[in-house]
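Need the bound structure for iron/sulfur cluster, inputs here:
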Amino acid sequence: VGIAGFIDSHAHLTDKSFANDLEEVIKRAYSSIIVKIVVPSIDVESSVEAFIIAATHDNIYATVGFHPHEAKDCSKDAFEQIRRLATEPKVVAIGEIGLDYFYNHSPHETQKDCFRQQLELAKQLSKPIVIHCRDAFADLVPILRDEKYRGISGVCHCFSGTKQDAALLLEMGFYISFAGSITFPKADKLREVVPTVPLNRMLLETDAPYLAPQALRGKRNEPAFVIHNADKVAWLHHADTEKVAAITTANSESLFVLSGKQEQRTLTYKLGNNLYINVTGNCTNDCLFCPRKHNSFLGKYNLRLYSDVSAEDIIREIDDPSKYDEVVFCGFGEPLLKFDVVKAVATWLKKNHAQRIRIDTNGQANLIYKRNVVPELKGIIDAFSISLNACNADEYQRICRPYLGIRTYDSVVDFIKECKKHFPDVTVSIVEYGGISAEKARYLVEKELGCRFRMRSYKSDLQG
Ligand code: SF4
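Answer from helper R.:
Posting the output first, comments after.
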């Protein structure tokens, strides 16, 4: 095709219509012309799902937030969950947020309050916003112009306004994104807007599973179909599709900072005669004692990771694995979020005679992948160190603040039992924090779970 690749800047991969074939949809996207995908959210549940999809897949990113339809459900607790998720490295924006006076699923004042609250969050975290606006530009523009929100960047997704609305948003520095609606026969008015938006201020999206382009109308939309929207933009701009691809992809890269913020990454580091492997900066917990959100360093090593890490990146850094007493997958995040990377690197380590390979984990992999992944690690992993950190679900909820909710603790306990079935060397650790009873914890780990017990200081390390 001669096209470098598109970014689908807005695909609802969390939609239930993708539940049965998400991996195929992603594969199809990458084997067509898609290089990256941004997955937006509409409420807490979809925000958690979008984050998990992003954290477990290369080149997929999440946005988190409350859609105006759901503004009525934006309680203090719900907002707090969005705020915590928004600090994860794979979460690149706050969205979809805005106003929708077409469907009016939430009262206008509630929508405005929720929008303002999330604008403040975006400002605090220096993250861009993804705006949803339908029949509400007259109220949206004055809010965005408020001095308090100066400096916030973003995109107005699936643009449906007039040339004047577009001009106002462009004047404020926002990008405009077009979806499949520009290909619909009755969308002449919208098509007139497209040439008024310079390519260097435009993003492309599918808004999948909605708004399949005219050529595929009636089908479930998916990222691979973005080419139809690009062709239409190219035609309306008297440009070629290659140029549209190159410019809109660069725009998404720059707005969402998709290639990561940091130049220097620490992927491997040595402590004593052990080699540690840092696979991800994302985690499915937000433990009260975890330093990763306010400190990037473990000793002299900067462990903060924003970008995706490949198995090749890691292997390139390891000279001779056999010289270490132990090689440990850990880091400022949950290593099993990069399950395929861990498997590929561990297989290589085994082949190259690593003496002992351990994973330090929060034990949530089976919950994350919705399948039992433990047997897949047989033969390549020697030991597990699993942080349980509490003696019951309520305690875990309070201390570890799992994004996956109250069911997480039981799932971690099941994961430990599963590891114990397949691996002789399983240590379960509880952190010395928040009044956890060491005696109770030791009994639970040694007597009930049959594992080695370790009480560790919350100041010592992360999962290790
Ligand atoms: S301490 Fe470990 S499990 Fe808890 S948030 Fe940090 S990296 Fe995740």
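Comments: The mean pLDDT is 95. The chain has 15 helices and 17 strands.
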